[in-house]
Amino acid sequence: MTYDPSVAIPTLVGSALSCFATSCVLLAWMCYGQGKRSFRYALVLNLTFAEWVNTLNNTISGTIAVLNKGYLQPGGACTLNGWVGQLSVQASDFSILAIALVTLLTIKLKTYILNASFDKKILICLAVWAVPLATSTTAVAMKVMEPVSGNWCWISAEKTKLRYALTHGWRFGIIIITICIYVYVFIYMRKRLSYLQETSRTFSYDYGRDLHDLSAMASPPANTDFKDGSRTERMLVDEENPGPLRTTSAPPKSKSKLLGVNTGLSVASSSFPSPSSPLPPPSPAGPRRRKRSQSKSVEREIWRMLLLNAYPIMYVILWMPGIVNRIVEATGHQYKWLQIMQCSTQYIGLANALTYGFKEHSRDFAIWIESLNHHR
Q1: Measured between alpha carbons, how far is residue 193 from residues 65, 273, 360 in Å?
Q2: Which residues pair with 246 in a beta bridge?
Q3: Dist CA 85 CA 93 (whole Å)
Q4: How many Cα neighbours within 13 Å face the side chain of 366?
Q5: Any idea what the Cα angle at residue 206 is, between residues 205 and 207, rounded to 5°?
Q6: Nearest partner of 202 among 299, 285, 290, 117, judged by Cα
Q7: Could you give the CA distance from residue 109 to residue 148 in angstroms, rounded to a whole number?
């Protein structure tokens, strides 16, 4: 295979940068993340580990390829490189799908996701590796791993149908499903944001908690008919800022679903013999300022939820040149500019670390940098 430094070197640089970035995230987890048990964090960590394995594998083979002017020797090491590459890159693909699906189920307030046990989270993370393990082992068993275009070994270019059956077909499906989920989540959360901004003028909510760490869901009680003509009303209790109870009529059922984010409120049902029952006066401590700050907090937390789907967009964009190049190669053509652009796939790990990993540990990194400054 002809050695082209304009392709090999940028590809190696991308692999090395992604490997370094994901290594930093994993080190941050080892130092600061032991107490984090959220589902979001588990999925991000699973994705980061898959990217780290893939980029480390490609960095090693890429270094050898550049030093040997593009030559990678077929054999056991090449087969191992191809097996690890297939396993890890497809695990990254399925991690993206898992993140999209869990995000969708979270905003829909599915209790089996909201209240998932630690063991269930581990099982879901391990399930991400099931298909990749099967496809990579199948390719090795068929003895089709050999040096290919790029800095690594993989399924022979002559086995086009096998490539699509074991890798490309899965990836195309994941990309399509992820885009559909992202569009739905974006529209749904925009509607929720609009409604919560409207209701924040009436209700007091606490959005300070992490939307993804929901541990329980308060379901509105069914309306009950009373002989004395009393009506069912809902009392909203701010658990973190307790004060006099405020009673309000329950919102419509269709809109109450949109209220299902983590509000930090206890929702209770109570019957009152008379609509004019006296209630303690509300606290005068700056309700308007509180409503404005909570409205901003609503927007910040909801867009933080959307951030969990921001990475799949980068994933799709960075994979497009590689996908197009593979389609072109399958037709028997090759274009140098497209091969150069294909190196963008090696920057996916870097995008992952910047979008998710460093976001998760931004406060930890700030504390670490501050401690270094104090020791000077």
Answers
A1: 51, 35, 23
A2: 236
A3: 12
A4: 5
A5: 110
A6: 290
A7: 45
Q: Which range scores top for mean pLDDT: 148-152, 194-198, 228-232?
A: 148-152
Query: Residue 32 has what pLDDT?
Result: 75
Tell which residue, 137, 65, 73, 157, has the closest CA to residue 346: 65
Question: What single letter denotes the amino acid at residue 209?
Answer: R
Residue-wise DSSP of 107-143: HTT-HHHHT--HHHHHHHHHHTTHHHHHHHHHHHHTT
CB 90 within 8 A of CB 129: no
C-alpha distances out from residue 300 to 17, 104, 180, 306, 334, Å: 30, 18, 24, 10, 46
Q: Are strands 153-155 and 145-147 parallel, antiparallel or unpaired?
A: antiparallel
Q: How far apart (Å, rounded) are the C-alpha atoms in residues 236 and 242?
A: 10
Which of 184, 200, 214 minimizes the C-alpha distance to 298?
200
On whether the CB atoms of residues 364 and 32 are closer than 8 A, the answer is yes
Q: Retrieve residue 33's tokens.
A: 């993340």
* CA proximity to 133, closest of 185, 91, 73: 91
The pLDDT value recorded for residue 306 is: 60
Which amino acid type is present at position 241? N
**Structure token pair of residue 289:** 């300022």
The structure tokens 């298909």 sit at 131
Ordered domains of the chain (ranges, CATH): 5-191+302-374 (1.20.1070.10), 208-285 (no CATH)
The H or E element containing residue 270 is strand 265-272
> What span, in angstroms and rounded, lies between the C-alpha atoms of 109 and 220?
13
Q: Summarize pLDDT for 12-66 with one digit per residue, the tens.
A: 999 999 999 999 888 888 887 666 667 777 888 899 999 999 999 999 999 999 9
β partners of residue 235: 247, 268
23 CB-near residues (< 8 Å, 6+ apart)? 52
DSSP helix/strand/coil, 154: strand
Residues composing the chain: 376
247: helix, strand or coil: strand
pTM confidence score: 0.71
DSSP 3-state of 164 = helix
Task: Please state, in angstroms and rounded to a whole number, the distance separating the CA atoms of residues 309 and 108.
Answer: 15
